[in-house]
Amino acid sequence: MNENRLANVESTLAFQEKTIEELSDVICRQQTEIDLLKAQVKDVLERMEHNEEDSLSGDDFPAVEKPPHY
Q1: What is the 3-state secondary structure (H, E, C) of 13-67?
Q2: Hey, is 6 helix, strand or coil?
Q3: CA–CA distance from 9 to each of 3, 4, 19, 20, 34 (Å)?
Q4: Does residue 42 lie within any of the structural domains?
Q5: What is the pLDDT, as a whole number, of residue 39?
Q6: Which parts of the chain sit beneath pLDDT 50?
Q7: For residue 56, what are the contacts with CB-CB under 8 A and spacing of at least 6?
Q8: Residue 66 domain flag
Q9: Whole-angstrom Cα distance, residue 10 to residue 3?
Q10: How many CB atoms lie within 10 A of CB 69?
Q11: First CA to last CA across the chain, in angstroms?
């Protein structure tokens, strides 16, 4: 009976170790994706700010203009 309980504990431990390793891999992949997305958002925000500055400083294109059909 002791051997059966020990086998159950070892089986549970092995399952938990495998699960922890899989979760760790998922977290690493998610962190990599988060870092990539942060960099993309930063790039988009910088381009938007640059475009805003260009449109405010230049008189070539009005900042707000109604379309011709209005």
Answers
A1: HHHHHHHHHHHHHHHHHHHHHHHHHHHHHHHHHHHHHHHHHHHHHCCCCCCCCCC
A2: helix
A3: 10, 9, 15, 16, 37
A4: yes
A5: 97
A6: none
A7: 63
A8: no
A9: 10
A10: 4
A11: 86
In a domain, 9, yes or no: no
Is residue 63 within 8 Å of residue 56, measured between CB atoms? yes
DSSP state of 69: T
- Number of structural domains (the chain) is 1
- The pLDDT of residue 64 is 67
**pLDDT confidence of residue 60:** 56
The residue assigned the tokens 């431990």 is 13
Give the domain extent around 33: 24-49
Q: What pLDDT is attached to residue 62?
A: 56
Tell me whether residue 2 is in a domain.
no
